[in-house]
Amino acid sequence: MYRLSETAVLFAPPDTIEAEALKQIENTASMPFIFKHVAVMPDCHYGKGATVGTVLATKGSIIPAAVGVDIGCGMIAVKTPLTRSDIADPATTRTGIERRIPMSAGNNNRTLSESAARRVTELESLATRDYSGIDPNWRLQLGTLGGGNHFIELATDESNAVWATLHSGSRGIGNKIGNLHIRRAQTMAKAAGTHLPDRDLAYLTEGTREFDEYVRDVLWAQNFARLNRDEMMDRVMLELSHSVYGDASHVAELEVQRINCHHNFTQLEEHFGERIWVTRKGAIEARRGMWAMIPGSMGTRSYIVTGLDNPMAFSSAPHGAGRRLSRTAARKQYTMSDLDTAMRGIEFRRSSVLLDEIPAAYKNIDEVMAHARELVEIKYVLKQFVNVKGD
User: Fold this and answer.
1) 63 near 35, Cβ under 8 Å?
2) Is residue 24 part of a domain?
3) Is the CB of residue 261 less than 8 Å from the CB of residue 292?
4) What is the reported pTM?
């Protein structure tokens, strides 16, 4: 652990963090409602307002842009009783998953499956407002992957057991909710003449209508994200049942363990004897014994972990590899031949659209995990053999 200042704690050497990100950390740590300090994870990199990989403990205020617009984005992982040899045709399994789960930005379900309809009903029961006014298509978004760095993978652990893993969030409805409240916080700050080191650090204050409405909406979107991942993983399990056994009757027996965790979210927690808001922008909750997944990039290892409840990190840990290069820089620096080399031995959809997701554009996940040794205990190391991504 390293102290950048009295109000900023780093879990990576300062010289491994780019100057722009260090400035963002200083800006965030200067906000008057920060509780104790901000905790910066080993995978941190420059972001919008606050660095990706920052844990903000706050009293009386929340910064909507620190949660971001992919509210509730996170990981789900299922351990199966299968071994690598049970997946006889990875290419067919990949295309089967792609048929069952809409992917890429803006692609939704045409109709709701029975399981998706049940989850939509649960979300409707949780809602205290009509979210169709924000996005009339939100129901059809449940069970969809999205694009960018969202993915589905099949991987094996050290014992050759097959895991299914998936990275996604709250889709279009979460994006619209996030942007709505970010703009509202910025408008309020401007009207009040509030001085901010960065306009994306505009905040909402507890006790106001705007704060209450944000909390209502962000918690609902986090539930959407969790259920969205569950719905997609159920479809992956269905495809595995068909791929291995030829029918849908083996879904239940394929699931040994399920892990579902957010890494862009906010919630009330108790730390140092006080109830505070903890916003994790690219970080997972890591209480002692709590299971989570920390993914690498699309061609590198991922980790199944349990938390160590580190108090200085507000019981948090890194969320993944973290970008090393911007998407534009990655496209300038690498070629499709480089991507082919990085993905050798992995079944994936070869497309120039995915070039900016090349593993070299991300930080070294093994180095991230070495810096996270105070934060988590590694339970399994995964290496993918099937990768599914949208555009």
Assistant:
1) no
2) no
3) yes
4) 0.96
Q: Does some domain include residue 20?
A: no
- Checking DSSP bridges between strand 52-58 and strand 74-83, what pairing results, if any? unpaired
* pLDDT reading at 323 higher than 90: no
**Can you tell me the distance from the alpha carbon of 390 to that of 344, in angstroms, rounded to the nearest whole number?**
19
Residue 26 has pLDDT above 90, yes or no: yes
Tokens 């990576």, residue located: 12
> Which residues are designated catalytic?
319
Domain annotation covers residue 41: no
- The string of pLDDT tens digits covering residues 257-280 is 999 999 999 999 999 999 999 999
Question: What's the rounded Cα separation, in Å, for the pair 290 and 57?
Answer: 20
- Whether 271 is covered by a domain: the verdict is no
- 161-198 confidence digits (pLDDT tens): 999 999 999 999 999 999 999 999 999 999 999 999 99
Task: Please tell me the total count of domains within the chain.
Answer: 1
Q: Could you write out the DSSP letters of every residue in 90-130?
A: HHHHHHHHHHHS--STT---SS--HHHHHHHHHHHHH-SS-
User: Rounded to whole angstroms, what are the CA distances from 115 to 112, 163, 385?
Assistant: 8, 22, 28
Range of the domain at 293: 67-261+286-389
β-bridge mates for residue 303, sequence order: 294, 381
The secondary structure of 356-391 as a DSSP string is GG-GGGB--HHHHHHHTTTTEEEEEEEEEEEEEE--
Q: Where residue 231 falls among pLDDT bands split at 50, 70, 90?
A: very high
